[in-house]
Amino acid sequence: MSESVKQILDRLQPDSYMGRFGKVYTDTSDFMRITGGDVIVLDQQHYLVLRDEVERSYGIEDPKYWVKRCRHLESGERRLLKLVFHEKFTLQMGELKVLCYRSPRKEARILDLVRGDSRFMQGFSAEDEKDNKIRVLDIIKGKRLDNWIYKLDVDHKTYFQAYLPEILQKFIASCQAIQYLHAKGEKHGDIRRDHLWVEHGSGEYVWIDFDYTFDFHENPFGLDIFGLGGLLLYIVGKGFYSPKEIDHMYGNEKDAPDIKQEDFLLVFKNRLANLHKIFPYIPEELNRVLMHFSSGTRVAYESLDEFIHDLRPCLKQLA
Amino acid sequence: MDANKILIAVDGSENSRRSIDYVSDILRGCAQYTIKLLSIEHLPDRDFFVDDTAWKKACEKKREELLSFLYDGKQMLTEQGISENMIHTDYIENCHSPLPGEPGYCSRGTSIALDILHKAKEENFGTVVIGRRGVSKAEEFMFGSVSNKIIHSTSDCTIWVVQ
């Protein structure tokens, strides 16, 4: 007869307090049922479920029922378990619609590819008794890069001079990490502001969440490249600037810049790409990289090689 | 390049059908031209499927559809009076296909445009015909465009882009 949760805890973590002794799961297919106090068994390792992971956006908490915060009972360490959730959905990006798919096996493959590479979240995959490919992830101790930047209590000029050189240097290293994936025929698939984290202590930037995929056959890495462009814009601007925010910055001043539609991003048309117009100390070269993602651009980056090639000299200028 | 050799790149879409229609209208009654209908296999993304069985099934379905389209395309041309022995078809398999394939050139799946141009050069086609979806600038930059890439990547043959 298999062990109960209480027996497992008594054996592996006798000193721990548990409010609820749940069930032992060796099949995670019905992930909605698995909750705090349950134990998931994978490859003879035991993971005590603490709670569902929650994504916070604009002050709203969105539970991710297929992602469980756990304690690995054999080591006592915290882990994230991503259970199998096959989801196909349309991602709305400005006016564009992109068909995306959540692929456990893609993420498992990338975890294997980047093992030991500190630029990416670490973990491994294991199959439960129904062959569900579960990803067992180390928890990153740190903060989202965008939140960290947003909370720096300095004006833009101070930020630009005191912080941006180091941030840009690390961002380029993060781009090289994605370039490595592309060279291996893989894509991140979901490059967003909240998927690049700053690790406490080391200060290194770490990519998370590789399970999205999309299918652009003539420009296979297009979404990653545009994602990095958007992230660069946020980093350089210390935020995004909509027409309303720009109006607010200048009020009725006569020296308000003449901003046209072509100065905004090609995809998200309410985000100013031509930052030079509001922050004139941004060098032309760096602004030119941003403008490749604007509505006015005539040429887009087809590869990260081109993007990084243009970005590196900007770093020297800032330094 | 042989000006009498025309390569029509097709993908089973309405744009491809329009390309075939256009060429048959232009060449009706011209005996000296040879035409090849070319299709490059584009596999459904493996990661979009729960397992390899489902993926393989989707690959089979897609291959059947494209081979059937090539057959229909040939019929469309012969019905317009173009001699059957002047029309050829070619299906380039993907190198990573789970289905059995013929030996020879295969598509690596990184650029259909470059695969088309490779065949055009290898077989000395003077004209490449391609349909156009008519995408926005944002779509073109993000998703890529086969017709635009062909236009920008060739210098030694004529390109007809059919709207």
Concise structural overview:
Chain A is built from 9 helices and 13 strands. Chain A is of the alpha+beta class.
Can you give keywords for this protein?
A: 319 residues, alpha+beta, seven-stranded mixed beta sheet, B: 163 residues, alpha/beta, Rossmann fold
Rg of chain A (CA only)? 22 Å
Mean pLDDT of chain A: 93
Q: Looking at CATH, which topology of chain B would you report?
A: Rossmann fold
* Chain pair forming the biggest interface: A-B, 27 and 22 residues
User: Can you summarize the main beta sheet of chain A?
Assistant: 7 strands, mixed
Task: Let me know the number of strands of chain B.
Answer: 5
Q: Please identify the top-level CATH class of chain B.
A: Alpha Beta
Helix content of chain A: 25-40%
Walk me through the structure.
The complex is a heterodimer of chains A (319) and B (163). In chain A, helix 5 runs antiparallel to helix 6 (222-237) and helix 5 runs antiparallel to helix 9 (304-318). Chain A has helices at 5-12, 104-113, 145-150, 156-162, 164-183, 222-237, 243-250, 284-291, 304-318; strands at 24-25, 39-42, 45-57, 60-72, 78-82, 87-93, 96-102, 123-127, 133-138, 142-144, 196-199, 205-207, 212-214. Chain A is built from nine helices and 13 strands. In chain A, a hairpin with a 5-residue loop joins strand 8 (123-127) and strand 9 (133-138). Chain A is α+β, with helices and mostly antiparallel strands. In chain A, 31% of the residues lie in helices and 24% in strands. In chain A, the strands form three sheets. A seven-stranded mixed β-sheet of chain A has the order 1-2-3-4-5-9-8, covered by helices on one side. A three-stranded antiparallel β-sheet of chain A has the order 6-7-13. Chain B has one domain: Rossmann fold. In chain B, helix 3 (112-122) packs across helix 5. Classes of the chains: A alpha+beta (319), B alpha/beta (163). Chains A and B meet through strand 7 and helix 6 of A and helix 4 of B.
